[in-house]
Amino acid sequence: MQIAEASFPENLVTTETVARMLGKSARTIRQWAAEGVLPAVSMPCTRGYRYRPSEIDQFVSAYSVGPLASERG
């Protein structure tokens, strides 16, 4: 049985990948996902999260997120 490609329109990325993209720690990314700050797909089998690249792009566009963002206030 094959899963229809339409069921998965884009690849999901890991917490570690998003952390590198945003210049934040993996712990911060997981915390943002748990709090609903960062859109994420919950993965019950691993108790973790995965992220849609398009939603990460939207997040970055909407918020100033960089290595020094928290220091700017």
Explain what the structure shows.
The protein has 73 residues and is mainly alpha-helical. It has one domain: Orthogonal Bundle (Multidrug-efflux Transporter Regulator, Chain: A, Domain 2), CATH 1.10.1660.10. It contains 4 helices and 2 strands. The chain has a two-stranded antiparallel sheet with strand order 1-2. Strand 1 (41-43) and strand 2 (48-50) form a beta hairpin.
The first-to-last residue Cα distance is 51 Å
- For this structure, the CATH topology is Multidrug-efflux Transporter Regulator, Chain: A, Domain 2
Structural class: mainly alpha
Q: How many helices in DSSP terms?
A: 4
Strands side by side in the biggest sheet: 1-2
Q: Give Rg in angstroms.
A: 14 Å
Mean pLDDT: 80
**What is the approximate shape?**
globular
- Measured as a percent range, the helix fraction is 40-55%
CATH architecture tag: Orthogonal Bundle
Counted beta strands: 2
The unreliable regions are 1-6
* Count of separate structural domains: 1
Element-by-element helix/strand order? HHEEHH
Largest sheet: 2 strands, antiparallel
Into which percentage range does the β-strand content fall? 5-15%
CATH C-level label: Mainly Alpha
Layout: helices, strands, pairs:
Layout: H1 15-22, H2 26-35, E1 41-43, E2 48-50, H3 53-62, H4 69-72
Antiparallel strand pairs: 1-2
Helix pairs in contact: 1-2
Protein traits:
two-stranded antiparallel sheet; 4 helices; Multidrug-efflux Transporter Regulator, Chain: A, Domain 2; mainly alpha; 73 residues; globular; 2 strands; disordered N terminus
